[in-house]
Automatic annotation (TrEMBL):
First and last residue of the signal peptide: 1-19
Positions of the Peptidase M28 domain: 291-502
Pfam families reported in the protein's UniProt record: Peptidase_M28 (PF04389)
Identification of the protein by name: M28 family peptidase
Domain of life according to the entry: Bacteria
Keywords, ordered alphabetically: Signal
GO biological process: proteolysis
One function term, GO molecular function aspect: metalloexopeptidase activity
Keyword presence, Signal: yes
InterPro entries (UniProt xref): M28_fam (IPR045175), Peptidase_M28 (IPR007484)
Length: 524
């Protein structure tokens, strides 16, 4: 057994013992009856529509996303859910504007040489310059117990350039959230922008080939960027090492030897200042989009709200190929639609939930969790009355770690804020879906994959709302045009959706909501 799986098994065993302290309060026959209305056939029916070519990959703000929003809203309405957005012509839509910033030109020049957009440089952020600037080499751009690469140098208002990965000499803390931490540190030091160099051209090519198509489509933000001749926020640029050695007039071999010599002396690499000319311009376009909300009012505890989320957007058409997003996150959205059906049938039978339930499929997840961020900052129902968020993002496949055990689900975040929520969920699993293995491998804030921060539940956790993130792991079709319906494992998908329903039922009907008993509010 692999170490990570052993840890997950031990965690499960420990939490299983603790879960015995929690007594489920729901009628087991009711849970079982309505849980079983969630079927493979109906899941496949919805997913075959949402992940079809007709929906063009559901890119945020594009035609396919709008079609999906209409489909989901009509389903909510047909099942008796209420549209809770009172100030909108369509009360099922929470509409807002994003802005797409797309670079039309970007060059960095010196010594008669230039680094060019999407060949040698890939910019991130609202990075706008049209001037000559100072660029300071700051080694690895890091600050640890052993090294401070900014010691003795003033970078305020200037550019910095550094290597992406810190070496072992910088200590173990340099390996944690490296690039994100370095970028934040550069901004705190007052740098206007940072150019990051991978360790080799090969690594640069690998990284950019993976993300080039997305970057070329532009970047969506909430705030309308300033005019393209004005400097606004801190910017990052990923640069091709060999090109920048030419542009800066450096001998790569001698440069690397000098750095190695510094490290041997336990010193940061020496600062070097260059003069470069930057010409960066972009275009801006408004992109209207919408979250889709369906509300089921509760009875005696109706002022408290349980939220069930998924994201219905995907990445659209890239290089002429439709990325259908069957698993990501057509599967989660389809799961939510089926959970709606189960609750709607129960309510029709006179067994509606005690607490209110908000079913919400959000937009803009692939662009940085934007839809859920918008809701969390403009909630229709107060966050302090929101008892939990159950977030469903990719439940239709499996990963390499579970080839021999496809009937599983990764559970992330259940114990981050509330011991109650974690114990309730474990007990629900043991009672109703004991054949579905719960895997806690990624249930760590310091996990290098950072899954706790990478889906929509996180925007609830930031506001102190307990969360559970259901996930099946990544696979070779993740963000590829091959993420199609024919590859979905509808058996495990059904089991996962049924577990989420059973958990939602228990949370919506027990006397007391999960207590938030941990100081950490989910922030980084």
């Amino acid at each position: 057994m692999k170490k990570t799986n052993l840890l997950a098994a031990l965690t499960f065993a420990f939490t299983s013992m603790n879960a015995q302290d929690i007594k489920l309060e729901s009628n087991a026959e009711d849970v079982q009856k309505y849980m079983n209305t969630i079927t493979q056939e109906e899941l496949k029916g919805h997913l075959s529509i949402l992940a079809s070519d007709e929906y063009e990959g559901r890119e945020t703000g594009e035609r396919g996303q709008k079609m999906a929003a209409d489909y989901i809203a009509k389903h909510f309405m047909n099942k008796g859910l209420v549209g809770p957005v009172k100030d909108n012509p369509n009360p099922y839509f929470q509409q807002f504007d994003l802005y797409n910033q797309k670079y039309t030109n970007f060059t960095i020049s010196a010594n008669g040489k230039s680094a060019k957009l999407f060949d040698d440089i890939f910019p991130y952020g609202n990075f706008t310059f049209k001037e000559d600037v100072e660029l300071i080499f700051v080694g690895f751009g890091d600050s640890t117990k052993t090294f401070d690469d900014y010691a003795g140098v003033d970078v305020k208002g200037k550019g910095v350039i550094f290597f992406q990965d810190s070496p072992d000499e910088y200590g173990p803390e340099a390996k944690v959230n490296g690039l994100r931490r370095k970028a934040k540190y550069a901004a705190e030091k007052g740098a206007a922008f940072a150019i990051i160099l991978p360790e080799s051209d090969e690594k640069f090519n690998t990284q950019t080939s993976r993300y080039a198509s997305y970057l070329k489509k532009g970047r969506l933000t909430f705030n309308k960027p300033q005019k393209s001749n004005e400097q606004n926020s801190f910017g990052l640029v990923l640069g091709k090492p060999s090109t920048f050695m030419e542009v800066l007039g450096l001998d790569e071999s001698k440069f690397n030897k000098a750095i190695a010599k510094s490290l041997k002396k336990q010193e940061s690499p020496k600062h070097t200042t260059f003069k470069v000319s930057i010409d960066a311009e972009f275009s801006t376009m408004r992109v209207p989009t919408e979250n889709v909300l369906g509300f089921m009012e509760g009875t005696d505890l109706k002022d408290e709200v349980l939220v069930v989320t998924s994201h219905y957007d995907h990445v659209g058409i890239i290089d002429g190929k439709i990325h259908n997003g069957a698993d990501d996150d057509g599967s989660g959205t389809t799961g939510v639609l089926e959970i709606v059906d189960a609750f709607a049938q129960a309510k029709k039978d006179g067994k509606g939930p005690r607490r209110s339930i908000l079913f919400m499929t959000v937009t803009g997840e692939e662009k940085g969790l934007l839809g859920s961020e918008y809701y969390s900052e403009h909630p229709i129902f107060p966050m302090e009355k929101t008892i939990a968020d159950l977030n469903v993002d990719m439940i239709g496949r499996g990963d390499d770690a579970h080839k021999d055990q496809p009937n599983f689900v990764y559970v992330i975040g259940s114990d981050m804020l509330s011991s109650d929520l974690h114990s309730i969920h474990t007990q629900v699993s043991q009672t109703y879906k004991s054949d579905l293995a719960l895997d806690y491998t990624y249930n760590e804030k310091n996990d290098p994959n950072r899954y706790y921060y990478r889906s929509d539940h996180y925007n609830f956790a930031k506001h102190g709302v307990p969360v559970i993130f259901y996930f099946n792991g990544t696979h070779e079709d993740y963000h590829q045009p091959t993420d199609t319906v024919d590859k979905i494992a509808f058996g495990p998908m059904q089991n996962r959706a049924q577990l989420i329903f059973a958990t939602a039922w228990e949370l919506a009907n027990r006397d007391k909501a999960p207590v938030v008993d941990k100081e950490d509010n989910g922030s980084k």
